[in-house]
Amino acid sequence: MQVVTSKEMQQLDQYTIETLGMKEELLMENAGRAAAGDIYDMYPEAHTAVIFAGKGNNGGDGFVIGRTLSSLGWNVYVYLLAEEDALSGGALYHKDLYRACGLPLTAGTGVPEPESPEEGIIYIDAMLGTGIHGELKEPFYSAAKWLNSVTAPVVAVDIPTGVPANEEELPGMAVNADATVILEAPTLSTYLYPASHYYGEIRIVPIGVPRASWNALDQKRQTWDLTDAAKSLPERTQESHKGDNGKGLLIAGAYNMPGAPAIASNACLHAGIGLLTTSVPASALSAVASHVLEATYFPLPETEDGQVADLQETPFPWDGMDGVAAGSGLGRTESTRVLTKRLLTETQTPLVLDADGLYFLPELEAEMANREHPLILTPHPGEMGRLTGLSPKEINAERFTVSREYARKFSCYLVLKGPNTIITTPEGRQYVSTSGSSALAKGGSGDALTGIVLAMMLQGPTLEEGVCNAVYAHGLAAEIAIREGISDYSFTASNLIDYLPKALAFIQAQKK
Ligand SMILES: NC(=O)C1=CN([C@@H]2O[C@H](COP(=O)(O)OP(=O)(O)OC[C@H]3O[C@@H](n4cnc5c(N)ncnc54)[C@H](O)[C@@H]3O)[C@@H](O)[C@H]2O)[C@@H](O)CC1
Ligand SMILES: Nc1ncnc2c1ncn2[C@@H]1O[C@H](COP(=O)(O)OP(=O)(O)O)[C@@H](O)[C@H]1O
Ligand SMILES: [K+]
């Protein structure tokens, strides 16, 4: 599923109408019909739709939805928040058709009187869609406020009115929908927070935009969902041996941080790696090994307090590896800086850096730029802030743009974590993972992700797909755990590791 900006959506629309010759009214008919069908299925007990329509195309969709739901047996009322003569194009055509069908319409700039709550009423927000600019003006401001006060379900068409489509700051007022029926493709704000909270349940309906229109659009941003994971996750062959499934080296931890390497190692092993060597400061080894039986170990020299030390001459076994991951729990000492520099310059395989492994990168930009082998960085917004000099708030407001600029600048794969983690390739292709749960907002979740990325990037089929699958499976494991009754209070990275086998089995089952 492609993810677009409002401008890209307009280009798609324009190509379909002007170049391919599909009538605007027909495209709107398709859109409204698809949305109405979805709303009808979503609320089998409902019998009445109260639709708030604007004067643009979002309002035009509202008239089609009204007419369609009426044909399906519902009572419908449209409140047009504009004078009737303000409409033009497809919206005017569908308003006239709605009226010609004898269906009720109130036009003007007032907001309807509040009604007593009644079972079976659905409010539909078809006021503004991707055409919004800036703060909501009247009468939409009051109408949005009014819709936010009703107890009945509110379904937004395409975008909740007031929410910008792109990476813009949320205005003071927006419709807080229970569900949003997105037409054809989601826009950026669907996957940006806090904007995404306003969407409620996300439902995406195809509206029949021809493939030719999509092919003409130069855009490289999409979701990564169950279908993508199932399609790309390679089948394990009967005759494979451990060497075929990737040999990885994980460098992590300290005497007082044995959890990070233990979690990352277990996650890596459960995500399918053939052979794992875990490298931890010597005094942490027995604690880690007692939790991870399947790894082999490469102890690191350490300081008196059990942190990595003096790694300048350490003969790391990376020559025999297919991939290396480093960072979690290493600390931010000079030794970590030395290690990070050696990793960037000496490893001849894909390299994953996370947590403390990201800390010294602003001092090692030349080494990053000169690196010839794939580099995969997995920062959370705080770490991304350190890499870019921006605040986490600024990062989250422009997650797509910030990730793309950084990944292209340093030719790296960037996994910007958070709800709807974004994976960006060195060429600027972007994937938004649709899996995840707020249960993951706990120490250790990131360590688990590092391990899963190390394992899955080595499974392929390409590194890009492997990294996307790692992020997807990580989020799905948390979702399944919550679905099966684990409280999001209690959920830990250990639960995530326990549920990873179910998540992978679920993805594999979709292949059948
Ligand atoms: N792109 C596509 O492929 C399709 C889009 N359709 C619909 O078209 C919508 C976009 O339509 P439009 O471009 O006409 O735009 P909208 O219907 O979102 O709104 C445009 C109107 O809102 C006003 N407006 C903008 N910002 C405002 C603010 N802050 N306060 C008050 N009024 C404001 C503008 O002056 C303009 O009159 C989509 O969201 C979707 O619902 C569908 O009809 C068909 C297919
Ligand atoms: N609210 C949330 N919704 C979905 N995923 C989340 C949420 N909060 C955190 N995550 C995920 O959990 C992981 C946390 O990683 P990180 O912040 O590095 O944690 P730590 O370093 O403590 O292990 C990331 O994969 C992130 O995407
Ligand atoms: K809307």
Automatic annotation (TrEMBL):
It comes from the Bacteria. SUPFAM superfamilies: Ribokinase-like, YjeF N-terminal domain-like. Binds 1 potassium ion per subunit. K(+) binds at residues 58, 125, 161. Residues 225-507 form the YjeF C-terminal domain. Gene3D superfamilies: 3.40.1190.20, YjeF N-terminal domain. Its EC number is 4.2.1.136, 5.1.99.6. It catalyses: (6S)-NADPHX + ADP = AMP + phosphate + NADPH + H(+); (6R)-NADHX = (6S)-NADHX; (6S)-NADHX + ADP = AMP + phosphate + NADH + H(+); (6R)-NADPHX = (6S)-NADPHX. Residues 9-215 form the YjeF N-terminal domain. InterPro entries: CARKD, Nnr, Ribokinase-like, YjeF_N_dom, YjeF_N_dom_sf. Belongs to the NnrD/CARKD family. Belongs to the NnrE/AIBP family. Bifunctional enzyme that catalyzes the epimerization of the S- and R-forms of NAD(P)HX and the dehydration of the S-form of NAD(P)HX at the expense of ADP, which is converted to AMP. This allows the repair of both epimers of NAD(P)HX, a damaged form of NAD(P)H that is a result of enzymatic or heat-dependent hydration. This is Bifunctional NAD(P)H-hydrate repair enzyme. It comes from Marinococcus luteus. The lineage of its organism: Bacteria, Bacillati, Bacillota, Bacilli, Bacillales. The gene is nnrD.
